[in-house]
Amino acid sequence: METELLRRIDQLDQADPLAPFRERFVSDENGINYLDGNSLGRLSHDARAAILAAIDDEWANELIRGWEHWTELSSELGDVVGSALLGAGAGQVVISDSTSVNLYKTIRAALSLVPDRRVLLVDANDFPTDRYILEGVAAACNLELRLMATSMDEPVSVDDFAPYLDDDVALVVLSQVNYRSGALNDLARIAYLVHSVGAMLVADLSHSVGAVPITLDEDDVDFAVGCTYKYLNGGPGSPALLYARERLHSELTQPIWGWFSATDQFLMGPRYEPAPGVTQFLVGTPPVLQLAALKGALNVVCEAGIERLRTKSIAQTALALELFDDHLMARGFRLASPRESSLRGGHLTFEHPDALALSSSLFADHQVLVDYRVPNRIRFAPSPLYTSFAQVYDGIMALAAVAAR
Question: Per the residue annotation, which of 25, 34, 179, 229 is the catalytic one?
Answer without folding.
Answer: 229
